[in-house]
Each structure stands twice: as C-alpha cells, then as structure tokens.
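Appendix B. Raw example, untouched.
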Amino acid sequence: MDKIVKLLVVFVASLFLLGCTGRETVETGYDAELAASLGADDYGMKMYTLVILKTGPSQESDKEVLDSLFRGHMDNISKLAEEGKLVVAGPLGPNENAYRGIFIINSVSAEEVNEMMQGDPAITSGVLAVENYSWYGSAALSHYLELHKRIEKIKP
C-alpha cells in the first residue's frame, strides 16, 4: 500500500478511536439543525470521497495543448466547487508516487464521482489519472471554501 494511503488510513482510524473512547460529550453549542443540514453523524463527521490525482499515461508534451487541458482542469475545479460538490482541492509537492494533487468530493457515490471527473479534460485526456478512496472527515469541511474566498487575493 502506498505511503499516502497508509497515512490516511492511520489518520481516519485515529479519528475513529478518539470518537469511541466511551466519554460522554460535553454540550458546547451543538446545533442539531446545522448538523442535519451538513449530513453530520453524532461525531460531526461524514463520509466523502478522496480523489488522488496522479500523472496519467498520456505522453502529451505540446505546451499549448497542456495549457488548454489545465485551463479546463481549473475550470472544472471551479465549477464543482460552486456546485458544492468539491470541498477541497490542491496540488501535492514532489513525491515518489507521481501523485499530483487531491480532491475531497462531497459524495460517496463512485458513479457520481466518476461522472464529475469526466468534466476534467486533464483527466479525460490521460494527462492526469485518479484513484478514489472513501474518507471520513468533519461534515463542516464544506464551509472552509466560504472562508477561503475571504482571504483569496488572486483567483487561480
């Protein structure tokens, strides 16, 4: 199993174990309506799909073509974020696995996630490839993009 997948498994398992300590929760402003609207469980968490983008099989090297594909890639990211389907997106630093970036998708349906990826020309062209994993995280994660808009000086 790749290092990043192992790290994610350990992270998710740690979150689960922290939530299963048998301690009673202390009420600190729990908002049942908000929790329900976000699809949160009793721990304030929910399942997402983690998409790992990696270098694909395409050997495309024409700069103009690549620029066009990555413009489409960024457009698809913006579209999915505006629709509330994409919760997190970002590139990864250099690594031995050829991983290029991640998406956290607000869906657990493999069919729906695969359909979303078909809107990305960098993926459909084979310049990027994807690996999908179930991921358990805070149901409030979707609200981070609203805050990000307030601190983003330049749009990609």
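End of appendix B.
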